[in-house]
Write a sequence for this structure.
């Protein structure tokens, strides 16, 4: 089957270039339990290049009960091999392999093994093993995604020094039309359309952007260059627009373009500014010190910063797109060409700055293509940057964010999920102490609950959150599940993980910026940056 048809749904979401990134991705999965295989299943169906499963376990009756990929004839066989063979059947274009070895053993014996992968998805690891893997992946520049299903609790945590996003694709976008301060070519086009002499059909099909630009010019001429600022002035501006409508015997005709102009009048006095997220990126030290090793992203951010300070006079490069408008095809296309020409000129200016920066850093000035610069400028308003603390920083007593943890435990909407975060960590400490998870034996659940609560309180004290409360009901729930990996929870965590993995691989959309806790008891999620 043709790839464009096979991956049609994905291409509609992340585009052909996103699909190319996905098809080049090499993914490593640690532990082939239900959480990991659910996540990997979705990536295999999405068309990754290849995957490797690392798992030293044999298939047990428990696996048959919670992992739909494993069948009875796989009992006592290699879990890594069985899962690999089943996953390969889902997409013949994806290569699959396996390593029959415990992840901890492989991390200790061959840490360079992980260098070959685009993304490592590590499931059901203890805090100690996850922290060690985080160090390895950061050393090799490999993206890491940690997953865990623990009874009715799910855990997801990306980890890498920084993740740079050009196509964040926000739910809503602003239109940058420059109506109050048009550049010469736009001003000339606006003036070329004479409302007074236009025929009725032409008059009713002049794009609303032109109407607003003409109204803005007239208003500024009559008000000393100022734009409407108060509510009465803005109402008067809209009345000015309405007064231009054609009428019969004093009754205004229905002209949709004027209706659009009135409803979009705010675009004259409230043009889009540089978003706070972008201002933070422009102010980042990485944009001030460009070296031969600087990623292209930071070179272009530095070039963008120069453009804003110089040619842009405080404004971003024009995106070049215009919204849908009630207009004749000819006039809409003419207006669109005016905006695209300006966008191309702005991108060329950014490109010139980028070439200068590259040359100064000792890199080939042409190492960033013109198409990449245009792509960057088109999405410049929505650039995003995510940085994650290392797991060691998050978990060590000297660097953990105790005050943030205390606040989350005290807030009504996050208290339970923050407590579950604490209890997952406490359960790992319990295991290190007793070589079993709390609740492993029915006869000791009550005793284990007291021990787990003690571990949780000790952890809170180490983090500087002593006195914060963890619900006894949640302690009992964590003991009751005995670290069971339920498929109903694994399926949800795996689906979220696949979504986050695609964000990390394609560098589109903004990934979770901290630790995500899924509470299946309350059907809620929370993201914490501890």
């Amino acid at each position: 089957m043709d790839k464009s048809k096979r991956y049609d749904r994905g291409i509609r979401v992340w585009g052909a270039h996103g699909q190319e990134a996905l098809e080049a991705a090499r993914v490593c999965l640690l532990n082939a339990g239900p959480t990991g295989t659910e996540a990997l299943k979705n990536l295999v169906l999405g068309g990754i290049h290849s995957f490797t499963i690392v798992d030293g376990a044999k298939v047990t009756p428990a696996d048959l009960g919670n992992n739909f990929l494993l069948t009875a004839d796989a009992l006592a066989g290699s879990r890594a091999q069985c899962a690999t063979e089943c996953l390969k059947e889902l997409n013949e274009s994806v290569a699959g392999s396996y390593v029959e070895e415990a992840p901890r053993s492989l991390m200790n014996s061959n840490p360079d093994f992980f260098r070959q992968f685009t993304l490592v998805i590590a499931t059901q690891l203890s805090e100690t093993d996850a922290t060690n893997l985080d160090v390895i992946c950061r050393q090799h520049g490999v993206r890491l995604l940690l997953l865990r299903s623990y009874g009715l609790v799910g855990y997801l945590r990306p980890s890498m020094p920084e993740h740079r996003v050009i196509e964040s694709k926000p739910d809503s976008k602003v239109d940058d039309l420059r109506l109050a301060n048009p550049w010469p070519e736009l001003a000339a086009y606006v003036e070329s359309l004479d409302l007074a002499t236009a025929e009725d059909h032409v008059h009713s099909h002049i794009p609303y952007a032109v109407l607003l630009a003409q109204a803005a010019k007239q208003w500024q001429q009559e008000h000393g260059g100022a734009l409407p600022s108060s509510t009465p002035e803005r109402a008067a501006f809209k009345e000015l627009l309405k007064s231009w409508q054609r009428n019969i015997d004093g009754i205004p005709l229905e002209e949709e373009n004027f209706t659009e102009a009135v409803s979009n009048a705010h675009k004259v006095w409230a043009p889009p500014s540089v978003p706070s997220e972008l201002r933070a990126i422009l102010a980042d030290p990485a944009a001030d010190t460009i070296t031969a090793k600087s990623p292209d992203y930071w070179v272009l951010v530095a070039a963008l910063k120069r453009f804003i300070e110089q040619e842009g006079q405080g404004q971003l490069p024009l995106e070049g797109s215009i919204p849908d408008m009630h207009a004749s095809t000819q006039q809409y296309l003419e207006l669109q060409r005016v905006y695209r020409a300006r966008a191309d000129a702005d991108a060329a200016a950014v490109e010139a700055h980028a070439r200068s920066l590259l040359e100064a850093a000792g890199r080939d000035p042409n190492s960033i293509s013109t198409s990449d610069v245009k792509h960057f400028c088109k999405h410049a308003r929505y650039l995003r940057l995510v940085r994650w603390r290392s797991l060691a920083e998050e978990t060590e007593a000297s660097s953990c964010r105790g005050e943030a943890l205390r606040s989350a435990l005290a807030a009504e909407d996050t208290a339970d999920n923050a407590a579950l975060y604490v209890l997952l960590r406490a359960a790992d400490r319990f295991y290190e102490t007793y070589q079993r998870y709390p609740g492993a034996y029915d006869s000791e659940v009550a005793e284990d609950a007291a021990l787990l609560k003690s571990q949780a309180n000790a952890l809170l004290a180490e983090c500087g959150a002593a006195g914060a409360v963890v619900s006894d009901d949640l302690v009992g729930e964590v003991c009751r599940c005995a670290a069971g990996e339920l498929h109903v929870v694994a399926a949800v965590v795996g689906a979220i993980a696949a979504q986050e993995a695609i964000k990390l691989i394609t560098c589109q959309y903004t990934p979770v910026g901290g630790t995500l806790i899924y509470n299946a008891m309350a059907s809620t999620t929370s993201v914490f940056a501890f």
User: Anything to note?
Assistant: The chain has a mean pLDDT of 96. The radius of gyration is 29 Å. The longest helix spans residues 329-360. The chain is about 50% helix and 10% strand.
